[in-house]
């Protein structure tokens, strides 16, 4: 009787271990697929230019050229372009996070005629490609004298972002109605309610929103290339355009080495804020 009672438990443990093994194997494979391009980028940055032009292509470099990273850093004003990218990304990420939180709070807690229709239009605007609005936006900024300045990113940040508004709206809509009622009884208006009660409660979504907005801006190539001059431009533009030889042909190994250094700040931002990022994405589910 005792042996018969233990057999299902043992089989269940074996089944759980097998399921875990399959799950871990799948995770390792998926992780390898995602890290594969980055690994190829690192290996390309360690190769000689002549080796890249030779056939057939080899995965591993014949001679590791560590100086490619030093050359990529030295040949352009790497820190200067990185500083420009950081300024733009911090300005936009901070402003768009706060403005999107304010708009999302309005959609979640206020009542007004046509609110659902307006929210539907806002969500529908996420399907518009950036290229459609880029030319009209450039013409507006040109007439306002804001080309070759960082003011476009300030205005974009103050205008909020539809996807981030959606995240905040979903989060604020899930908070208890008692918080709002207690604040109204205490004489707190909606502005004070937002800053004192709702915004401090939303740190997971704030973290996720900031990481997303920072990544958008840091990785943007089109807008800085269109709106900024060479001196004010960002690291993304410098990596794509400044590593060329005398004939104007891109130097692939230096571009790859610069791209690796370009990706590192984004990885650091995500590693620092990953707990809040994951929590923010999980607490802003559909309702």
Your description of this structure?
It is a single chain. It is flat, with a radius of gyration of 25 Å. The protein contains 14 helices and no strands. It has helices at residues 2-45, 49-53, 67-75, 78-109, 115-124, 130-143, 151-158, 162-173, 177-185, 190-201, 203-218, 222-227, 235-241, 252-282. By secondary structure, it is mostly helical. The mean pLDDT is 85. It folds into two domains: 2-45; 74-282, MetI-like (MetI-like fold).
Please give a handful of descriptors for the protein shown:
mainly alpha; 287 residues
Number of DSSP helical runs: 14
Largest sheet: none
User: What class, by secondary structure content?
Assistant: mainly alpha
Provide the gyration radius in Å: 25 Å
CATH topology of the largest domain: MetI-like fold
Please, what is the average pLDDT? Answer: 85
Helix-residue proportion: over 70%
CATH level-two architecture of the largest domain: Orthogonal Bundle
CATH class of the largest domain: Mainly Alpha
Beta fraction of the residues? under 5%
Low-confidence stretches: none
Terminus-to-terminus distance: 50 Å
What's the order of the H and E elements? HHHHHHHHHHHHHH
What's the number of extended β-strand segments?
A: 0
Number of domain modules:
2
CATH superfamily of the largest domain: MetI-like
Per the principal axes of the C-alpha atoms, what is the gross shape?
A: flat
